[in-house]
Amino acid sequence: QVQLVESGGGLVQAGGSLTLSCAASGSIFSINAMGWYRQAPGKQRELVAVIRSSARTNYADSVKGRFTISRGNAKNTVYLQMNSLKPEDTAVYYCAADLRTAQAMGVISYWGQGTQVTVSS
């Protein structure tokens, strides 16, 4: 069984910063990519940022220059440093990982439970 556990959400004023953390645990053989998605009320879930095993990163246009995704030394942890936060960044942020387990043959996507980020104006 694989688990993704997020932490670091909260309430912050516009212009402030937050750092989200996500740790993957369980019978993990390898991780292809880890990323962050968000879903605001009434909107579809959208990709915020992703980092691949090659260390290549991609960002949504709306967060480029403000958010930074990185991986921990253990490679099963991912962080999202969010600076210059705006009220429109308010959403539930979900951690996701595409990985191979010790039991399965293919790559499977796993999701965390989500953490709320609220940016007040």
Descriptive notes:
This protein starts with a strand and ends with a strand. β5 and β6 form a beta hairpin. With about 120 residues, it is mainly beta. About 0% of the residues lie in helices and about 60% in strands. The chain has strands at about 1-5, 10-15, 20-25, 30-40, 45-50, 55-60, 65-70, 75-80, 90-100, 110, 115-120.
List the helices and strands and how they pair.
Layout: E1 2-7, E2 10-13, E3 18-26, E4 28-39, E5 46-52, E6 57-59, E7 67-71, E8 77-82, E9 91-101, E10 108-111, E11 115-120
Parallel strand pairs: 2-11
Antiparallel strand pairs: 1-3, 3-8, 4-5, 4-9, 5-6, 7-8, 9-10, 9-11
Protein traits:
7-stranded mixed beta sheet, 121 residues, mainly beta, elongated, 60% strand, single chain
What is the tally of helical segments? 0
Assembly status: single chain
SSE sequence, one letter per element: EEEEEEEEEEE
Distance between the termini: 40 Å
| Share in β-strands | over 45%
Mean pLDDT: 95
The profile of the biggest β sheet is: 7 strands, mixed
Overall outline: elongated
Which range best describes the helical content: under 10%, 10-25%, 25-40%, 40-55%, 55-70% or over 70%? Answer: under 10%
Return the structural class.
mainly beta
The total of beta strands comes to 11
- Give the low-pLDDT segments: none
Q: Compute the CA-based radius of gyration.
A: 14 Å
Short description:
The protein is mostly beta strands and 121 residues long. The chain is 0% helix and 60% strand.
